[in-house]
Design goal:
This protein is mainly β and about 210 residues long. The chain is built from two helices and 14 strands; from the N terminus they run αβββββββαβββββββ. It has one domain (about 40-210): Clam (outer membrane lipoprotein receptor (LolB), chain A), CATH 2.50.20.
């Protein structure tokens, strides 16, 4: 079953590399002045030293894969990510740090493909990115929106006006929408639910809280 899902994933991924996703732009927003002291935004959801443990559900081209995902901050710049099956069997174990650093500790044989590993590496690098230099700021009725430009990437960070919590990150590259991260959180350092939706691939990842985080 794992081998069938992997082959389906790889074939579809190769095909869709040639399919462009739509251009993204903000609508129905008003510009805001950008104070000197506010030229950086942060994603604080993975800054605690406690374990972040989630029930993980992945939908890959209509096929469902589930397991337990653990994210742990092991230094100021590095996180360790471990995913196991529902029965506790390890599927993948890797470390991600700033400046594109990556260390693969373990991977299940069926997942040991360069394309799959790079896919997971890139997704979690974006999810765990903490610092965003801000070049523009906007608002709508519900959110303050910071725009961050890093290399050829543009990030749109949405902060709820009432709670100040980060609710959404839209990641674009060459003005094309790539990934939409949405968060539901009661605290600024821990999101109870996280949805990761690719815009150019039929891949969605949903994370639901298992353990409490102070």
């Amino acid at each position: 079953m794992h081998r069938f899902l992997l082959q389906s994933f790889l074939y579809s991924l190769i095909f869709l590399l040639f399919v462009s996703c739509k251009t993204y732009k903000l609508e129905n927003v008003e510009p805001l002045p950008l104070p000197e002291k506010s030229k950086q935004s942060e994603n604080l959801y993975f800054t605690s030293s406690q374990d972040y443990v989630y029930k993980c559900q992945m939908e890959v081209y209509g096929n469902d894969i589930s397991g337990i995902l653990i994210i742990k901050k092991i230094s100021e710049t590095t996180h360790r990510i471990v995913m196991t099956s529902d029965f506790g069997n390890k599927m993948i174990d890797f470390e991600i740090g700033e400046n594109d650093t990556f260390k693969l500790n373990y991977v299940l044989a069926d997942l040991d493909k360069k394309m799959v590993i790079n896919f997971l590496k890139n997704d979690f690098q974006e999810l765990l990115r903490k610092n965003y230099p801000v070049s523009e700021r906007f608002e709508n009725n519900e959110s303050i929106i910071d725009i961050s430009k890093i290399d050829k990437k543009i990030y749109y960070l949405f902060f709820d006006k009432k709670s100040d919590n980060l609710t959404q990150i839209i990641y674009t590259k060459k003005n094309r929408e790539k990934i939409d991260f949405t968060f539901e959180a009661k605290k600024p350092i821990f999101a109870e639910t996280i949805n990761l939706q690719h815009k150019d691939f039929k891949i969605n990842i949903k994370l639901n809280q298992i353990t409490e985080n102070d």
